[in-house]
Fold:
Amino acid sequence: MHTLFHEFGHALDGLFSEKTYGYSFIAWDFVELPSQIMEHWVTEPEMLKSYALHYETGEAMPDELIEKIRESSLFNNGFAKVEYLAACYLDMAYHTIGPDEEVDVAEFEKEAMDEIGLISEIVPRYRSTYFLHATGGYDSGYYSYDWAAVLDHDAYDAFKENGIFDNETAQSFRNNILEKNGTMDAMEMYVNFRGREPERTALLRNLGFME
Ligand SMILES: [Zn+2]
Structure:
């Protein structure tokens, strides 16, 4: 369901886009906002009750089970987040060295991780020798998943504040984000929708890192 909602968000972005030509520059760390925000609806109790029905009885998902889903979504988040962020820093570190600079990969990785104070119990999500993102299109942009997460959690809060099916909020998201689709500065698009710049508190709260 997450994948379906996610990809449908990309589809909506394309369908509602009002740009003239097929291709335009969208900030790399912004492209996953329209898709990732959709994932928030998947496990909303109100939403689950509409589609997660028992295959024989047609009964809606019971509240205890919905609560279990919510609780399990908090499992191991601290570990996963640090592991991921370590890889983001490693990616950035590699992209700060010059083209002719020779490095010892193992040593370079250790130094970069020591610099951010990574504890020995955790290693970067991808070690240098199989970190394909760092050279395969996400070069110095591996962090973009998480920046998009800051955006989608903060943007979804607007729906939480006004109602997850609030028409006006949805219309504003369509007008300011989906229709603009890379034809103007991403931060401007965001501020036009949210009324302010993004804050990371929604992400931290949803991961269970703060109340
Ligand atoms: Zn995507």
